[in-house]
Design brief:
The protein is 40% helix and 10% strand. The chain is built from 35 helices and 22 strands. A hairpin with a 2-residue loop joins strand 17 and strand 18. Helix 3 packs across helix 4 and helix 11 packs parallel to helix 13.
């Protein structure tokens, strides 16, 4: 039975009461009004900004006043970098007399570029024509404009589904339909191109490498024959064009002042473009934060910031260190935590944000209890009028780690936005084959479950289903899979495997779900995922096994396969019902997202879940803690330096999670993870001054007789020049509705239909016997790739056009539309004024929805604090009931309490299965 009440404490478990909570110092109150006297030559500019409500602090003034030469602006979280970029553009025009057309401002998304233009246009004294003349563009926008100017007319081929279709066609033509996944091939190709490498130079030492190269060269030929190019081609071809002095020199003369936003996220090719443009005059301003470099797996290079003053000797460095977002104690926790990293620019943020509350910590027993505590606390906050749902965010490390809280939110009718549009956990591509095997055990003629069963039999889905359907028309069978045992395209041992698989399927419904899953994994699935399926690359094996472990943890509370499948189908059904009830982007809903997706956002109240060892930091960054004899068995080996880099990126990820919070931060550290004990994250303990032993170093010292302790480097350590630079693969793409549509010339009509570009982070191809050059390429790419497969697909869609400062974006699942009256008492009228007006404006929509509802029988949890409900399963015809079927109500899947019968109005949607 889960504990219904959560208890949050002022310190994490394991921290002594004597340990004080870190707190950032208060920032000085002086602004430009006091810092810029009226007798200074540029005082008029700052007075005009003040009249417009823009009062800059000391570091901001220093950055805005910078004239010629390179400058690195270290912009801490919530320190007003966008204001500085816009104000400096205005300063160059109004004070320095720079022509607006000579300013180039480069960022990563169309939304950010448009916002920058709006900020500049709103500056006092800036004429509309001058604001339009400033070139605020994305990298892809700038590159495409350049290509169009020089006669490149290929159409943009950026829609991911179309790309997948072409690759699937090429795979079939090469007899490799089951060999590779299009997503993985595209990710590998993107990573290769963003290093500036030619496709013809792809590695080909192993058979898998040769096969993948043949398909990708065919993909490139297909595009060329049809006059198409993708988003990677745009950057690659623009960089090649800029290497021509006849092209580069006119651009260097025109763009005399260049500014780059989010500099820590640039990849190698993007940085090369910037360096070429600024090569003649070196008037380059870059703005970023090395402590927020969390996309190295996607090509971001922390070295771009750490080594800037080496690439540009004499560069000026200004630190924006006054934070206007977070409570001083929240900011202090984040600052103390990230200060433990060695490879960083030394900086300490000062607090100027609104006062909130001190961070609170909890240690639930498991992810299930963690989810119950968090959702119950959120409901209490909303019912008491403390926050509307929209002001609350739940941040998690990986896609699979949100499974438990997702179920709580769905079954308790809490409206939420899930950024990334991930499916229900049980519908993920990795989990669905196991689910469908259990569905077949309950109904062997569940034809929609057959495709997932063919893959683990190493049978082509299309051809296999076609054979089964043809045989079914001639002679239907109770187990349609049995037709494969007579298929002449299968070898005798494969035909025998079909029979053995059917025997297993027959037995599954008699087992507990946890035993059924373990038996499938033991007999075929783990082997299939690790070695039998070449679409799974070596460095994903461990994270995929982690997802399967999460699956096992999720089913332990169920007694029968039938009960569990019914629960999973109910979640999927409710998921679709929520999809049918999408609302406006500013709907009142909790924000659920990964920490990676939260970068650039801020929320009044943040719940960071999963702050335990093995989650954050992720287990794959903790291999240094594994004994040497066990480490030797790992499928991917990293050096100690690479593991240190991976751990530092995990620490930066924790810093980003903490600094999203403005007034309230709640951190939960489950005491177990996938059934194994888990300590509170070392990052939290370190922030409170605790020393966490480095097991790798301890073992080394035990052999040498030395002694050491974790964290001897202290709390303040700036970057040292002897650190080598790791190169990233892939690229951070300019995502959004299209690329480069902010231009005023007519060249942009050709890409108005481009759609989203989704760069796959899911690594590159290969086998355990990869070429040494390819291994080196992989290690340069990142210290480690640790995301599970589904999160790869989510993060590939990193579209800040939908994320930055738009907390209402994504897919909105508003359960209140069909919840029972009084489930969530209304807050005060003041708190929900905007929500009330929106509800009034949507009355017609609500009326139309009422015509598509139906009354269904449900089970309702009798607990007043739980409020979960499940749809009752339709009656089974006499004689066909499962032996495991129980006549009474099921136990509540959330709190294990008693459920009672009732009815409920729900939207009419297509049902899953039969």
């Amino acid at each position: 039975m889960l504990s219904p009440n959560s208890t949050f404490y002022p310190r994490p478990l394991g921290v002594t009461p004597a340990a004080s909570l870190p707190q950032s110092p208060s920032a000085p109150l002086e602004t430009s009004r006091q810092l810029v006297s009226d007798d200074q030559q540029d005082a008029y500019y700052f007075r005009s900004l003040e009249e417009a409500g823009i009062k800059l602090n000391g570091p901001q003034i220093s950055a805005v006043r910078h004239g010629r030469g390179p400058i690195l602006t270290l912009a801490g979280a919530g320190c007003g970098k966008t204001t500085v970029l816009a104000a400096r553009a205005g300063y160059l025009m109004e004070v320095s007399g720079v022509h607006a057309g000579s300013i180039l401002l480069v960022t990563f998304t169309n939304k950010a570029a448009a916002e920058m233009k709006d900020r500049i246009a709103a500056l006092p004294g800036i004429r509309p024509a001058a604001a339009r003349a400033v070139q605020a563009r994305t990298f892809h926008s700038f590159a495409l404009t350049l290509l169009r100017h020089y006669g490149v007319q290929e159409d943009i081929f950026g829609e991911s589904r179309a790309q997948h279709t072409v690759l699937k066609m090429l795979l079939r033509q090469n007899g490799m339909s089951e060999a590779f996944q299009p997503e993985s091939l595209l990710a590998m190709l993107s990573a290769w191109k963003m290093q500036g490498s030619d496709t013809a130079d792809l590695p080909e030492k192993t058979q898998d490498e040769r096969d993948a190269k043949r398909v990708l060269l065919g993909y490139e030929t297909w595009k060329q024959d049809r006059g198409k190019m993708d988003f990677d081609d745009i950057l690659l071809r623009a960089a090649a064009l800029l290497r021509d002095p006849a092209v580069l020199k006119p651009l260097q003369r025109r763009f005399q002042y260049i500014m780059v936003d989010e500099f820590q996220d640039t990849n190698r090719l993007q940085y090369e473009i910037v360096q070429m443009l600024a090569g003649a005059h070196r008037n380059l301003m870059v703005v970023g934060d090395d402590d927020q470099t969390i996309y190295t797996f996607n090509g971001a290079r922390q070295e771009s910031i750490l080594e800037f003053d080496k690439v540009y000797p004499g560069a000026r460095i200004v630190t924006l260190d006054i934070n206007y977002r977070s409570d001083a104690r929240i900011l202090g926790l984040g600052s103390e935590l990230v200060a433990r990293n060695k490879r960083r620019r030394d900086k300490r943020l000062r607090a100027a944000g609104q006062r909130g509350d001190a961070p609170r910590f909890a240690t639930p027993s498991s992810a299930e209890e963690e989810a119950a505590w968090v959702v119950n606390q959120i409901c209490q906050q909303v019912e008491e009028g403390q926050y509307p749902y929209r002001d609350i965010a739940i941040l998690h490390r990986t896609a699979s780690s949100s499974r438990a809280v997702f179920e709580q939110l769905v079954l308790k009718d809490v409206p939420f936005v899930q950024h990334g549009a991930a499916p229900v956990f049980y519908d993920q591509s990795l989990i669905k084959p196991l689910m469908d095997h259990m569905r077949l055990s309950l109904n062997p003629r569940a034809m929609d479950a057959l495709p997932s069963a063919l893959g683990p039999l190493y049978v082509s889905r299309d051809a296999g289903l076609e054979w089964i359907q043809r045989c079914e028309q001639e002679q239907p069978k109770k187990y349609p899979l049995i037709h494969l045992s007579k298929w002449d395209k299968l070898k005798p041992f494969q035909q025998e495997q079909v029979k053995e698989r059917i025997k297993l399927i027959k037995s599954l419904h008699k087992l507990k779900p946890i035993i059924a899953i373990q038996e499938m994994r033991r007999q075929f699935y783990d082997k299939y995922m690790e070695s039998g399926d070449p679409t799974i690359f070596t460095h994903y094996k461990e994270t995929m096994l982690e997802t399967l472990d999460e699956f096992e943890a999720a089913v332990k509370k169920f007694e029968t396969v039938e009960e569990f499948v019914q629960f999973a189908d109910e979640l999927s059904r409710r998921h679709r019902e929520m999809e049918s009830l999408r609302r406006a982007q500013d709907s009142d809903a909790v924000q659920l997202m990964t920490i990676h997706r939260a970068k650039g956002l801020e929320f009044p109240c943040v719940y960071w879940i999963g702050a335990s060892e093995g989650i954050v930091p992720h287990s794959t960054a903790l291999r240094q803690d594994i004994p040497e004899d066990q480490k030797a068995a790992l499928t991917v080996q990293q050096t100690d330096a690479e593991l240190d880099m991976a751990l530092e990126e995990e620490r930066r990820l924790a810093y980003v999670a903490i600094t999203r919070a403005k007034q309230h931060l709640y951190v939960t550290s489950p005491a177990s993870h996938h059934g194994k004990p888990a300590d509170v994250s070392r990052f939290l303990l370190e922030a409170f001054g605790m020393e966490v032993p480095d097991k790798r170093k301890t073992r080394e010292e035990a052999r040498t007789g030395g002694s050491s302790s974790y964290g001897n480097h202290g709390h303040s350590s700036s970057y040292r020049s002897n650190h080598g630079g790791g190169n990233g693969n892939g690229n951070r793409s300019d995502t959004g509705n299209n690329r480069g549509n902010n231009s005023s010339n007519g060249n942009w009509k050709s890409i108005g239909h481009a759609g989203d570009s989704r760069k796959r982070e899911s690594g590159t191809y290969g086998t355990d016997q990869r070429s040494s050059s390819y291994v080196q390429h992989e290690r340069q790419r990142s210290a480690i790739n640790y995301k599970d497969h589904r999160e790869m697909e989510m993060l590939d869609e990193r579209d800040e056009d939908r994320l930055i400062e738009r907390r209402g974006s994504g897919i909105i699942r508003d359960h209140k539309a069909f919840s029972t009256p009084g489930l969530h008492p209304k807050a005060t009228a003041t708190t929900f004024t905007s929500s009330t007006s929106r509800n009034a404006g949507s009355s017609q929509t609500s009326a139309s929805r009422a015509e598509r509802t139906e009354t269904v029988a449900v089970w309702k949890c009798s607990s007043a604090t739980c409020k979960a409900w499940l749809r009752q399963k339709p009656a089974v015809p006499s004689g066909k009931a499962s032996k495991k079927t129980t006549s009474g109500p099921p136990a509540c899947p959330l709190c294990s309490g008693t459920m009672i019968a009732g009815t409920r109005e729900v939207p009419v949607t297509n049902r899953f299965g039969k």
